[in-house]
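In response to reviewer comment 3 from the previous cycle, which asked for concrete evidence that the modeling workflow produces usable outputs, we include below a single protein chain processed end to end. The sequence was submitted unchanged, and the resulting structure tokens are shown without manual editing.
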Amino acid sequence: MTALPAPLPSAGPPHLTRWLLRLHRPALYAWTALVLLTAVLLILLQGPFADAAAEGWRQYNSCGFNARCVYDQSAILRYKDWYNYATLATAAVPFLAGAWAGGALLGKELESGTARLSWTQSSTPVRWLAVRLATPAAVVTAGTAPLAWLHHLAWAAGRGRIHSAKEWYDVGTFHTGGPVLVGLSLAGLAAGALAGLLVRRTLPALGLGVLLTGAIWGTVLVLLPHLWPTLGRSGRGYLAAPSGSWTVSQGGTAAHYHVTYHPYAHYWPLQLTATAVLLALTALLTLACFLVLRRLTGRAAAR
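The workflow returned the following structure tokens.
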């Protein structure tokens, strides 16, 4: 006797959304745990961890040349290590979004045939895909936005107080401490969805989603210094950018030397322009998803 498939939800978007959340409940729980644990760590970094590390550096500076002077080295190292862990966890979010969207969200359903069953019984292909893009996008935005804000606060708590704190233009710090994180996560989600539609197999789509997300991040890294006009200095002899600035280029001869840089005042302009680029790319990837779906389903997707 052949077992009948589980009944599919009705065609309305609210029913499809609830079905999607129930279907991917383990991933939702894992995502919630990741956001909460990372948020707690970032709160500790901007509070007691930062204060203890700052006090340790104050003790170290007061030691001078006294070799027997004691300072709280463990607090300094604790802040440094846990800041790196929190940055790594936050920076992994776009890649996790790309992997999940490619493998579990679309690749698995297309490989198993569940998607085509849904198209014939409960919803049109376009509505099916729209819900699978919009609902995760809302969940990802709701999680990455507070993480980016908390990460920026954790970094700002050590700026000027902790000598080992990262510079504002550090790759990990910049891409996890502002709206760029949200834009990159949404782009990763759309890239993973496109991978799932193109490959239609779970594991290959998962890998392709990660690769596409990495390519997007690499492109942003290359474009970032040029997304906002730089400042510059030129003259005879060696010139350096002001302290705390991001040196973009420098060189010349003894007769003429130049240096271009981004001061800290360019932090938010660079964040916003990079985010705009990522959102535009997300829109293009989303359009590509619907075009691929149309090619897969033919006239059924156009209804």
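The longest strand covers residues 246-252. We consider this sufficient to address the reviewer's concern, and the full set will be provided in the supplementary archive.
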